[in-house]
Q: What sequence folds into this?
């Protein structure tokens, strides 16, 4: 059985790599890896950790390219590959432009789509934008839905997805974290001088498209936090998006306890998790990853599709206003009992066996369709 895995961003690579690796151990399966090139260098470092060489390496990303341009470029190229390779199944993960383009293309070629990380919802089509609508559209296309949590399953059931096609398996990002802890090369030595054992390490990331108008308020909160607390050290891998970097230059003040660095490889990023006291982010995947290291997360977004983390207490949804972000930061940095509850809360996103469950399903699917 041939299964095509189509990916283009680093988060997609992190989540699909454990599944691809496990499937390669099955002699009756041929995983076909198609790399669209949305995050070429960032994704390549993840695939290298898992010793995965893409079968097709596309170069679809151009400077300042819009999401619709990525999709328009991807569809005909992916279609040509799928027509030539004739896979039995197409696997996509999450909610990126690559995810939607691949699922849309597979639908037109009548190839069943399995959607990994299915059922996440905010039910606001513009938050996060455009991801919320991509994943809802992929749900309508997909033949099988691998949901990380029971809540994700309930979302799909409310949308009239047949329960027999929904499988709660956890999120493969936790599989990837466990693998990287055991197999990844040593992290970048340049990071070590930024990690001060006598200070609380704050890991900061920002990149959301819908946050661009409010990014200044996030950075103003960071400025105030650094000035108010002399026991914090901030490491900020700055996203390569030039729009993000323009906001950083405009609104984030230079400080000797603020380290603005280029994006780091994933092994080094997980190393930062292991030393972090707190994460401040508008990312989606980090909301799942940081709790695996018992690190609380301040989410600088107006809503999150990962409501399980908010309910569990691992995530604090702080919005995008300076005052609400500072309130969350102040509470975590000054109320020890509150911090300890957030750090000790159980991670609802998986136990490291998601890829095993997905491969088991594929084997059963193959046996039923022979």
A:
């Amino acid at each position: 059985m041939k299964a095509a895995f189509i990916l283009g961003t680093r988060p997609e690579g992190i989540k699909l790599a454990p599944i691809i690796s496990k499937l390669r151990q099955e002699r009756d399966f041929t995983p076909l890896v198609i790399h669209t090139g949305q995050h070429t260098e960032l994704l390549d470092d993840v695939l290298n950790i898992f010793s995965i060489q893409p079968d097709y390496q596309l170069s679809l990303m151009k400077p300042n390219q819009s999401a619709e341009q990525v999709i328009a470029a991807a569809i005909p190229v992916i279609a040509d590959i799928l027509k030539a390779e004739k896979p039995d199944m197409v696997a996509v993960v999450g909610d990126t432009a690559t995810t939607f383009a691949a699922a849309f293309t597979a639908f037109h070629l009548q190839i069943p789509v399995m959607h990994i990380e299915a059922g996440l919802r905010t039910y606001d089509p513009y938050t996060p934008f455009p991801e919320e609508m991509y994943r809802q559209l992929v749900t309508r296309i997909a033949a099988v839905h691998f949901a990380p949590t029971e809540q994700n399953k309930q979302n799909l059931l409310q949308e009239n997805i047949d329960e027999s096609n929904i499988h709660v398996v956890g999120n493969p990002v936790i599989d990837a974290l466990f693998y990287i802890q055991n197999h990844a090369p040593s992290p970048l030595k340049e990071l070590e001088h930024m990690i001060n054992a006598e200070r609380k390490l704050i890991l900061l990331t920002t990149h959301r498209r819908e946050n661009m108008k409010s990014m200044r308020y996030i950075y103003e909160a960071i400025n105030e936090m650094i000035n108010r607390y002399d026991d914090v050290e901030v490491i900020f891998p700055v996203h390569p998006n030039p729009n993000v970097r323009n906001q950083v230059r405009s609104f984030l003040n230079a400080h000797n306890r603020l380290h603005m660095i280029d994006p780091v490889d994933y092994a080094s990023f997980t190393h930062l998790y292991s030393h972090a006291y707190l994460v401040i982010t508008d990312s989606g995947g980090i909301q799942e990853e940081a709790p695996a290291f018992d690190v609380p997360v301040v989410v600088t977004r107006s809503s999150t599709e990962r409501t399980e983390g908010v309910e569990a207490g691992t995530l604090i949804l702080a919005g995008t206003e300076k005052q609400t972000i500072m309130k969350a930061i102040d509470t975590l940095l000054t109320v020890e009992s509150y911090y300890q509850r957030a750090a000790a809360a159980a991670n609802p996103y998986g136990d490291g066996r998601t890829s095993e469950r997905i491969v088991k399903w594929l084997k059963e699917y193959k046996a039923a369709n022979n």
